[in-house]
Every structure is written in structure tokens, then in C-alpha cells.
Design goal:
2% strand, mainly alpha
């Protein structure tokens, strides 16, 4: 029987893949940007405690991310593909547990119970259900098309999806989440619970759009013999010998330290340091503008100079901007936001090429190890990203506790100065170290990527 012709790669795939990250970030950005603020200011939990909970959860991810990657590799292809079915199965649970994390009605239960509730809901949301939808989603990029240009387009649209979610979540929420009390901007807990519920509904809608619009075209069959030969132990051994994967993992951790410290500290620097919570919305809009500029610039620049090369240069520039901000210490909130936009452009360039770098690493690993493991490689990479989240949450939470921040001292002058220091110096270090890793350690620069593509085309022929 003649197989039904597969539709060629096109704009429908790109928009569908964009909606996938839109859905991801309705819960991920809510957590990475507001969870620490919600638990310190509404639930009255110490910042360092929230950071510890997040770090412990990431240890769990060491097993769930890699395990989900192996499950993806072992999954049999269905009429909807190998990875897409997981998005449909898990979009509901991830949205529900995201909503459950922000229950302001529990603010007056015993302190230990609040910590236990945070731990359980956060583990189930991030380490179980978010993993079960995000690992297949990320792995799916290499199954949608084998062409490097198409994959770069998917990476660009994925980042655009994240930027759109950022415009809604990080820019829109500050406009409605705060009340003016005694001249200070204070987070409204019950209102934030409703906001979290709305974000969960939108997440499900976006996941369903991704499922229905994307098509998996690249069929890779991994035999049981290959999987046994390349078991968990062998996979880790191969990973530690894989310079491209290890360096990209380190680069991604550094990127998230820079990115998430900027996002998390925005919840403190605008309402606390500048006394203007609504200016956070302007800052996030300017972030979106920076990401759009980066989106238009990334593809032609990466084609000419290489993805890793432009990522290194742009992030070094972003780090320098943060250092200038630290010494300049502008008293005008709009000057601060303008400088931040330049940093977001630098970060945005790397974010846009990062997902294409993952597919380059998958290709490189296939050449080195003789087996294609989209899920396993992406699982290791996703684990690294979550380690970056944990490192940032633990670091930011500990530093806030170190400067004496709690919901009673939040507006004292010394605490406010400490907030500014954290908001500028932590991202600066992340940006500059990221640039160093990409330039000097990561091996898949432009010429090597082109050679890997040539080798795999010869290996697979034109069937993919």
C-alpha cells in the first residue's frame, strides 16, 4: 500500500513549534520570574528556603529528564510521530500543577506545611510533568526536518514563542498583580492565584496548537540491540567524552544564571529599588523589542559567521553593559530599562541559536557514537537547563537573604542597594563566562557543523 505523502516543511510547522514554547513559558516563566517573589512576599517563606527547595528539585531532575529522554528514544513511532503524542498526554497535568503552586489561601497554614506544599507541587510540576512534555517537544525539532536551515528557523520561532509568552507573563502581570499600600507596591496574593490559573489555561491551548500544526518527517529507528549496547552507563560515558555536549551544557547553565537573575530580580528592583512596579512592564516590553531585533539578526549573522561565534560576541557585549550599569547606577528607572534592553539583545541572539546548537550536538553525537539519540541528548541538555534554574534560584535566594531581605525589610535603603548589586553583577558574570565557553571550549563552530551535515547526508542519503 502506498504511503501517504508527507507535507513539506513550511510555515505551519514553524508557527506550531512557536506555540509549543509559548505553552512552555506560560508555566516556566511564571515559575522562574514570580515563584520566588510569591513565596517571599505572599507566603512569607524565607528566600533561601525557596532556593533550597528549587535546588533539591533539580536533583530529582537528574533522573526524570534523562529517564524521559530514554523513554522518548524507546517510543515507537505512531501516526502522529514519536514525540508529539507526549505533548498531548502531558499538557493537562503540567498546567494543573503550575496553578496549584500559587495558592495564596494557604498563606496562614504552618510554616513547615507551606514548605512541604511548595516542595510537592514544585516537584510534580517541574520534575515530572514539565519534563514529560518539554523533553519530547525539544527532541521533536530534529524529527520535523533534517535540514540545518529549517532547524535554525524552528529555533528562531521557538525563541519568538518564548518572547511572546514573556510579553504576556513578565510584562503583563506586573500591571495587575500589585497594589499600592502605604506608598509601596505590594504583590496581591489572591489576584496572583487567579493569574496563575489563566496562564495554565493558555498553556493548554498553545500545546494543542503545537500538536496539531507540527509534522514529524525524519524517521529514525533505534533497535533494542542498539539501546542495550548504549545503556544508561554507556550514555553517560559517551556524554562525558562529548566535548560539544558538555561545553553546551555549561554554556546553557551560564545563560540561565544571567537570564533568570535578570528576570527574578526585576520583581525586586522595580517595586523595591525604584518604587515603580509598573515600570517592570516597560522593561519587559523593551526586552521583547530586544528579542525581536535579535531574531531578525541571528539567522543571517549565524549563516555568515556561525552560531557559536555570534553567541559568544553578543553575550560578551551584554556582560559589559551590566558592568557599566553597576557603576553608573542610574536613578532614572527608564535609563536602567534602556540599558537592560541592550543586554537582552545580546542574550536573545544566543537564545535564538541555542536550540539549533542542540540539534548540531545531536548530529555530532550520532557521528561519534553510531546511534542517534535525540531524546537522550536533549534530556541531558534539559537537565543542564534545570540545573541553571536551580543555581539561579539558590544563588538569588541566598543573596537576598544575605542582604537581609524579607517582607518586613523590603524597602530599607541598605537592602535596596543590595538588590541593585545582585541585579547587575550576577548577570554580568553569567554573560561573560558564557562568551568564554562558546569561543574557547565549544567545538562546533561553522566549519565543523558544515562538515557534520555533509557526513550525515552521505550516511542517510536523501530519504530524510
Amino acid at each position: 500500500m502506498k504511503e501517504k505523502a508527507v507535507k513539506p516543511f513550511g510555515i505551519k510547522d514553524k508557527i506550531g513549534y512557536m506555540f509549543g514554547d509559548f505553552g512552555n513559558d506560560f508555566t516556566f516563566l511564571l515559575s522562574s520570574t514570580f515563584l520566588l517573589k510569591f513565596y517571599t512576599d505572599v507566603m512569607a517563606v524565607d528566600a533561601y528556603v525557596v532556593g533550597i527547595v528549587m535546588m533539591v528539585a533539580r536533583i530529582v531532575d537528574a533522573f526524570t529528564d534523562i529517564g524521559m529522554g530514554r523513554i522518548c528514544d524507546r517510543s515507537k513511532s505512531t501516526k502522529n510521530g514519536k514525540f508529539k503524542p507526549w505533548i498531548l498526554r502531558m499538557c493537562g497535568p503540567v498546567a494543573i500543577f503550575s496553578f496549584l503552586m500559587y495558592q495564596s489561601a494557604l498563606a496562614n497554614i504552618p510554616y513547615a506545611a507551606k514548605i512541604a506544599y511548595l516542595f510537592v507541587t514544585y516537584i510534580l510540576w517541574g520534575s515530572v510533568f514539565y519534563t514529560a512534555v518539554n523533553i519530547p517537544y525539544g527532541s521533536m525539532a530534529s524529527a520535523i526536518s533534517s535540514d540545518p536551515g529549517d532547524r535554525q528557523s524552528l529555533s528562531t520561532f521557538r525563541t519568538m514563542g518564548g518572547a511572546l509568552a514573556g510579553a504576556v507573563v513578565t510584562a503583563g502581570i506586573p500591571l495587575i498583580a500589585y497594589d499600592k499600600i502605604g506608598g509601596n507596591d505590594v504583590l496581591n496574593g489572591p489576584r496572583f492565584t487567579v493569574i496563575a490559573g489563566v496562564c495554565s489555561v493558555f498553556a493548554i491551548i498553545c500545546y494543542l496548537l503545537c500538536f496539531n500544526m507540527c509534522t514529524e518527517r525524519v524517521k529514525t529507528v533505534v533497535t533494542e540491540e542498539q539501546l542495550k549496547r548504549n545503556n544508561i552507563g554507556v550514555m553517560f560515558k559517551n556524554a562525558f567524552k562529548n566535548r560539544a555536549l558538555i561545553s553546551l551544557i555549561v554554556a546553557s547553565i551560564l545563560m540561565l544564571i544571567a537570564q533568570l537573575s535578570l528576570q527574578q530580580m526585576a520583581n525586586y528592583i522595580f517595586p523595591n529599588y525604584y518604587g515603580n512596579a509598573k515600570a517592570q512592564t516597560l522593561s519587559m516590553v523593551m526586552m521583547g523589542v530586544g528579542m525581536v531585533i535579535a531574531a531578525f539578526a541571528a539567522k543571517p549573522l549565524s549563516k555568515r559567521f556561525g552560531k557559536a561565534e555570534i553567541g559568544a560576541v553578543s553575550n560578551f557585549a551584554a556582560g559589559i553593559i551590566c558592568i557599566v550599569l553597576y557603576f553608573l547606577r542610574p536613578q532614572n528607572v527608564f535609563v536602567y530599562a534602556a540599558f537592560q534592553m541592550i543586554s537582552w539583545i545580546g542574550l536573545g541572539v544566543f537564545q535564538i541559536v541555542a536550540w539549533a546548537l542542540v540539534t548540531d550536538v545531536i548530529d555530532y553525537s550520532e557521528i561519534k557514537n553510531g546511534i542517534r539519540e535525540d531524546g537522550a541528548v536533549y534530556g541531558l541538555y534539559s537537565f543542564a537547563r534545570k540545573m541553571g534554574q536551580a543555581a539561579t534560584s539558590g544563588l538569588v535566594g541566598s543573596l537576598l537573604s544575605l542582604i537581609g531581605y524579607d517582607n518586613q525589610t523590603a524597602f530599607e535603603p541598605q537592602v535596596k542597594e543590595g538588590i541593585f548589586d545582585i541585579a547587575t553583577l550576577v548577570p554580568a558574570v553569567g554573560f561573560i563566562l558564557l562568551a568564554v565557553v562558546l569561543w574557547f571550549w565549544y567545538p562546533l563552530h561553522k566549519k565543523q557543523v558544515e562538515e557534520d551535515v555533509r557526513i550525515l547526508k552521505e550516511k542517510h542519503g536523501s530519504s530524510n
